[in-house]
Write a structure and sequence with these properties.
Layout: H1 8-17, E1 19-20, H2 25-41, E2 47-52, E3 55-61, H3 67-83, H4 87-96, H5 101-104, E4 118-123, E5 127-135, H6 139-157
Parallel strand pairs: 1-4
Antiparallel strand pairs: 2-3, 2-5, 4-5
Length: 159
């Protein structure tokens, strides 16, 4: 799967469009299952993580993934929790200003990574309540896999 990098406006639009009417434990399981299905179809060596607040609701590690992917998940997820935007959008905002997240955020790069793959789980009338993260592919592909799964999932909720 080859993916081009989305523009800043495309990333912003994705987050606006992918606000859900609700998100329960069962929804996390369904979304996680959808991500596993997409990853298996593509033979993608990824780890997948879904959280609501501090609680991990879903985790899967597919063949070819490693503990390093879990470390990347944590670093990307922390960016979403801090900025309430996708890790890819945050990194893209810094690049649009002619700098990088690592150079200008003043955050520890061993703790935070503004690389694609972590996306906010936003619920209407509640805002960002969690995260969905994929790690194991190039950042544009990690991000695209999450967005594709959220688009399919949102369609089942009538969002």
């Amino acid at each position: 799967m080859t993916t081009t990098s989305p523009t800043l406006s495309e990333l912003i639009d994705q987050e606006r469009r992918l606000t859900l009417p609700r998100f329960s434990h069962d929804d996390a399981l369904a979304l996680g299952g959808l991500l596993v299905e997409l990853a298996r179809e593509r033979r993608a060596p990824v780890a997948i993580d879904i959280r609501r607040g501090a609680q991990q609701l879903f985790h899967a590690a597919l063949p070819g993934s490693s503990a390093d992917n879990d470390a990347w998940i944590d670093r990307k997820r922390r960016v979403v929790e801090r900025y309430a935007e996708s890790s890819y959008l945050v990194g893209t905002r810094f690049r649009a200003k002619g700098t990088t997240f690592e150079e200008s955020s003043r955050l520890d790069p061993d703790t935070y990574a503004a690389h694609g793959g972590s996306f906010p789980v936003a619920v209407e009338s509640a805002g960002v309540i969690g995260t969905v993260t994929v790690s194991g592919l190039p950042q544009a592909e990690d991000h695209a896999m999450v967005v594709e799964a959220l688009e399919r999932f949102a369609a089942t909720q009538g969002a």
